[in-house]
Write a structure and sequence with these properties.
This protein has 492 residues and is an alpha/beta fold. Among the domains are: 262 residues, Amidase signature (AS) enzymes (Alpha-Beta Complex); 80 residues, no CATH class. Helix content is 37%, strand content 11%. The protein has 15 helices and 11 strands. Strand 7, helix 8 and strand 8 form a beta-alpha-beta unit. The chain is globular, with a radius of gyration of 21 Å.
């Protein structure tokens, strides 16, 4: 298979030969209609959605109405916004008013939120057209999108393989040309890992830069919403649109959205770039070779590249799988069969409330969600809190300190995004630890709260992409994206 150029048509699907930036410019100028853009993507969905299952719900009629409204604004001489006519797919854990939002879980099947997530509101304010809700690992707990209650998503480049997770539906939708852009959530790598396995750009912003209001919570101190895109510039544009302070989110940073597009072509001349030694250990040879090639390309472009150690990063996986399940066990306690979602009565229609709670959760949650709830509840239980959850938080502090030390010597850091390319469906479902290791390179950044982006990298002669991860300190998105754009230009 010949790897696709950014924004071009590809063997993965009928991705239009325009970037999102180009599409929005053409629609705003009247050279292209939003309706025509939408029909291109709906045709791609019609051709391959039954094979890939990127979506839980395609909103064709609603999207056509939104596209028509954009075209009416242009015809009336009004500017519809920076994403005029650009189709966007939403991970199905983002609340959309009046539209079923399930988190790919039976326990929320049929639930329709009475409000939009802040990011959804901001998309619509800028003229985006929401094309559908994408499949995910149930409650974002997984690395392959095989844990969905509605069936797995498949990788557009090889449908026998996974797209990654938990935002596999969003990654697959962009890679297959089903949408120009997509949103996902990243708790331990759930944007970057599937983006890498599907050959698209995926960005986790600084914690607090994007409002989490309307994101159905997995682990509140780790979750962050971010973009999937075909190019670095498209990801930068989408982040500009969704970022910025939101009074509805108490963890939202009191800062305006960053300006990112203007500086993308600034190059890497003089930048100090560190290749993280700990994140190179244990990855497949192809992934390590891709990072070395990327580092060489950045060095040739004028950057100063060297090795750097972030010692505590090796404990990231262990700390994460105590902190995230602990927070999940608290967040998911709200699904009790009383207020919304599924209700399953106790044995024989028992009036016992505890029996109803237990029956509802047994029927509504899948095996992986139950596993993490039990793990998190145990970590928070009396007598074990300090030994497990408390210790994991102390390790998190060490990781933050080690990253801070690295950034005193380097402007950005580099690593593989994943240990290797996409694996086959069912290859790791029976081995949770093997599945968890898929996120070993991405988790440390979530624990630190820092931004990171993955850029597609196609090894010579390979039909499957890898990802190069660019990491930056908090609010370092501008320099991070400059380096990502340089990598994109140098990628094979």
């Amino acid at each position: 298979m010949t790897p696709p150029a950014p924004g071009s048509g590809s063997a993965a699907g009928a991705r239009p030969g325009r970037s999102a930036v180009e599409t929005a410019d053409a629609v705003r100028a009247g050279r292209l209609t939003a309706a025509a853009v939408l029909e291109e993507h709906l045709a791609a969905i019609e051709a391959r959605e039954s094979e890939l299952h990127a979506f839980n719900l395609v909103l064709a009629d609603r999207a056509r109405a939104e596209a028509a409204a954009v075209d009416e604004s242009v015809a009336a001489g009004r500017d519809p916004g920076r994403l005029a006519g650009v189709t966007v797919a939403l991970k199905d854990n983002l609340c959309t008013r009046g539209v079923e939002t399930t988190c790919s879980s039976r326990i929320l099947e049929g639930w329709k939120p009475p409000y939009d997530a802040t990011v959804v509101t901001r998309l619509r304010q800028e003229g985006a057209v929401v094309v559908g809700k994408t499949n995910l690992d149930e409650f974002a707990m997984g690395s392959s999108t095989e844990n969905s209650a509605f069936g797995p998503t498949r990788n557009p480049h090889d449908p026998t393989r996974v797209p990654g997770g938990s935002s596999g539906g969003s990654a697959a939708a962009v890679a297959a040309g089903f949408a120009g852009l997509a949103l996902g959530s990243d708790t331990g790598g759930s944007i970057r890992q599937p983006a890498a396995l599907c050959g698209v750009v995926g960005l986790k912003p600084t914690y607090g830069l994007v409002s989490r209001y309307g994101l159905i919570a997995f682990a509140s101190s780790l979750d962050q919403i971010g973009p999937f895109a075909g190019t670095v510039a498209d990801a930068a544009l989408l982040l500009e649109v969704i970022a910025g302070h939101d009074a509805m989110d108490s963890t939202s940073l009191d800062a305006p959205a960053p300006s990112l597009l203007e500086g993308l072509d600034g190059g890497v001349e003089g930048l100090r770039i560190g290749v993280v030694s700990e994140l190179m250990d244990g990855v497949e040879p192809a992934a390590a070779a891709a990072v070395e090639a990327a580092a060489h390309a950045l060095s040739a472009a004028g950057a100063k590249v060297d090795r750097v150690s972030v010692p505590a990063a090796v404990y990231g996986l262990s700390a994460y799988y105590l902190i995230a399940p602990a927070e999940a066990s608290s967040n998911l306690a709200r699904y009790d069969g009383v207020r919304y979602g599924l209700r399953s009565e106790g044995p024989g229609g028992s009036a016992d409330v505890a029996a109803m709670f237990a029956a509802t959760r047994a029927a509504g949650f899948g095996d992986e969600v139950k596993r993490r709830i039990m793990l998190g509840t145990y970590a928070l239980s009396a007598g074990y809190y300090d030994a497990y959850y408390g210790q994991a938080q102390r390790v998190r502090t060490l990781i933050i300190r080690d990253f801070d030390a690295a950034y005193r010597s380097f402007d950005i850091l580099l690593s593989p995004t994943t240990p290797g390319p996409a694996f086959e469906l069912d290859a790791k479902t029976s081995d949770p630890m093997a599945m968890y290791l898929s996120d070993v390179c991405t988790i440390p950044t979530n624990l630190a709260g820092h931004p990171a982006v993955t850029v597609p990298w196609w090894p010579e002669g390979s039909g499957l992409p890898l990802g190069i991860q660019v990491l930056a300190p908090a609010l370092g998105e501008a320099v991070m994206l400059r380096a990502a754009a340089a990598l994109e230009a140098a990628a094979p």
